[in-house]
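Entry 14. Structure prediction run on the chain below.
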Amino acid sequence: MVDHVQSLARGLAVIRAFSAAEPELTLSQVARATGLSRAAARRFLITLTDLGYVRADGRLFALTPRVLELGYAYLSSLSLPEVADPHLERLAAEVRESASVAVLDGEDVVYVARVATARIMRVSISIGTRFPAYCTSMGRVLLAALPGEELESYLSRVCPRRLTSRTIVLPAALRAELDGVRERGWAMVDQELEEGLRSIAAPIRDRTGRTVAAVNVSTHATRTSLQAAERDLLPPLLATAGRIEADLASLSPTRA
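Output returned:
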């Protein structure tokens, strides 16, 4: 390609030569990993050191935190769904169940990101799908995070319907359930939205600690018991929420 800037490509190759497995490299190792001559690798390392992206410690070179600036512009332009998508992909692949992110809109949760591994509901879920917040795991996480007055306002105006024999519809029982969610930091809903559907959710918080969304994993009751869901699904779910929060913390305030 005529417009291809080879020196830029080589400089980026030097940066990519470092990894979690090899955070420190010698000049010879950098040259070998990039296919550059020792002289060329040395020039790029000196340049990157002068710019503050690499530090030298004797014969060893390592990246500095300044390389994070290279990804900040990208992260700061992303929306919540764009930030969440790769993490949902990783979560769904790890637990082999569907994973979603939703936000609270009035009395409903609205799906804003989703990775489906199998269809486990009669209703097909896609971006924009809405469900009542009171009978969903993500809804309960989001409701439990509301300030007291907002939660009381919600409870006073919502009229829960018994969608299954397990659906909690009494305001006092729902309030007690939300208190439990708030205390433990996650929600489990067992076949309240649809028979056979179990889901577990955790909050996603912004840089100020405010809950802005929820992430969940859904499974079929015949496949995963309540105990197994808490044992096998909750830890990777909480880890995913933490990773999404870390990326959100890198967003500009106007985008987060």
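The chain has two domains: 6-70, 77-248.
Filed with the rest of this week's runs.
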